[in-house]
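Project standup — Tuesday

K.O.: blocked on the structure for the chain from last sprint. Re-posting the sequence here as requested.
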Amino acid sequence: MTDGTAPVGTAQGDRSYTWRDSELTSPPLRAINAVGSGLGRLGLHRPPLTSDAVVSGAVKAAGSDDFGSDSFREPLEIFLESCRTEAELTTFGRILITKMLQGALANRIELHRWTGEHPEAGEERITSPWVIVGLPRTGTSLLSNLLGLDPMNRPLLQWEAAHLIPPTSVEDAASDPRVARTTKELDGLMKLNPPLRAMHPFGATLSQECVSLFMYDVRTLALETQAHVPTYARWLEQADMAPAYAQHKFALQALQSVQPTKRWVLKTPNHLWDLDALHTAYPDARIIWTHRDPGPVVTSLASLANAGQRPLTSRADPRPTAEEWKRKCAFAIDSATAFDERSAPGWCQHLHYDALIADPVEAVRNLYAGVGEEVSDLHVQRMQTFLEERPQEAFGRHAYDPADFGWTYEGLAEEFASYTERYGITTAS
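H.V.: unblocked you, prediction finished:
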């Protein structure tokens, strides 16, 4: 797995990637940016990045204008304004952001239309889901995949997150053409930005962050991985997340109504930013908070965020994005720690990254024991096979250096000392 670690690789993994390798190299796309830059100097920015353009595109794609509610409109306006004034997007970046938003809102329309035709979906109960809430780069992807291998659990898969409606049945799941479609889409993304495959696990049938479901309400950290939008970020930190969780739950109910499951496996750092909203939406959730030395966490995340934004922006300096994500991590830690302080003991299980990496299967055993259950023999066999078949550096090594962002590991350790001391996190510094 590639969840922010940087050990020595083998074979293809001998290749190292940094955020610098995400430079846009496609001649046609560079030509589009050149033309767009010229038009921009004349005040003709295309696409316009307006809510009307985004909404009309979503309506056209979905064939309906029923969004269920207008809860998405305020965050959409704020995000687009932040894109226009802060993100320094190229023409290609504007195109990609527009299409991403249109796709998410079209998915929202389709979800509401389908559930209107299948009202029984609204009766589904999402019971005791596993919810992984750690910061990015703390082993959350690995843990999500391992928990998802329990036959009694169900993760949200990457192809399902991309193409939710109609929900697939048990009979059709393996042969659903959307699996191949998503694979093709991911291959295109990897061709455009090869370092991403070394920095994060991609695969149509791998588990996906449920942050994608927050996209339906345009209240999500996922948007900030694509563009440097600090104004939107600060709005989001104070925003009511209940409408986003409503869409999140609505989507899970639709999927579960066609393909039943005992328990979902959900994962996104987005939960850590507002644990109160998570608890309200899923009061019986089995929450796991993963912890890791903030030095490599923040540095790896700064590299990943810059890699995601680099093909879409004309900004060459990586430091603004790095500083923004470091600030965001500090905000998340403070928010989650405050929740921890006022909550009853046992509201979550704490899992240290070092323990997870040292013995992934044993870590999962301990999590199950923490809720009074045992891991089945079949689950153990599946986890062992998965770990053997997906070497950590199969697609290259993610190399990152705090000096790229004007930091040192010693300085980062000092900045996050209260967090590491509170939760007994071992640091390298």
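K.O.: great, moving the ticket to review. The chain has a mean pLDDT of 92. The chain has 19 helices and seven strands.
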